[in-house]
Amino acid sequence: MSFKKFRLPWGIDWALFLVPLLLSIFGVVMIFSVTYSTKPLLMISQIIYILLGFVGAIFLTFFDYRNLRSFSLFLYLIIIILLVLVLIFGDRTFGAARWIDLKIFQLQPSELAKLIITLLLARIFAENQKNFSIKHLLLVFALVGLPVVLVLKQPDFGTAMVIFWGLLCFLFFSNIKKIILISIL
């Protein structure tokens, strides 16, 4: 049986729908089997989170991500503020302050930073595709350097390196002279 014959409405691929659903069901069964005698509400909270994620996935299915392009700088400023706030008010666990407790859930701004910085870099590289200069290179390094330093202050070396390597990937696939890229490395 081929899944290519069966498509959800609006051209949504079955695999993109079924695989997360099956993994979520498997996760709930595992949580239930481990915690049914000690914390039965843990399974219910997990089901609520899965339903919220499903609603978010449906919303994002119909949302055109290209609309975020014009908001990328604004989102970047919000992420910088959140990264500063996590250093001031963040919950400390084993010496690291990476989360902001919002009482409903804990927010980890560095995870959002990876997405928003990618969005901002995509905008900058797309707008300056033909004439990417040293000025643009310095701007990009400054825009990425600030959140990388803030994430390193948490400390979260892994996330900081993911952000930095994301920049290097953008530079590698851009039309910047490869000698400049090699000198950066």
Question: How would you describe what is shown here?
Answer:
This protein is mainly alpha-helical. It contains 7 helices and 3 strands. A 3-stranded antiparallel beta sheet has the order 1-2-3, with helices on one face. Helix 5 runs antiparallel to helix 6. The mean pLDDT is 83.
**Average pLDDT rating:** 83
What is the count of DSSP helices, taking H or I runs of 4+ residues?
A: 7
What's the alpha carbon Rg, rounded to whole Å?
A: 21 Å
Distance between the termini: 48 Å
In the sheet with the most strands, the strands line up as: 1-2-3
Oligomeric category: single chain
User: What is the percent of helical residues?
Assistant: 55-70%
Question: What pattern of helices and strands is seen along the backbone?
Answer: HHHEEEHHHH
Morphology: globular
Portion of residues in beta strands equals 5-15%
Unreliable residue stretches:
none
Largest sheet properties: 3 strands, antiparallel
Tell me the structural class.
Answer: mainly alpha
Compute the number of strand runs.
Answer: 3
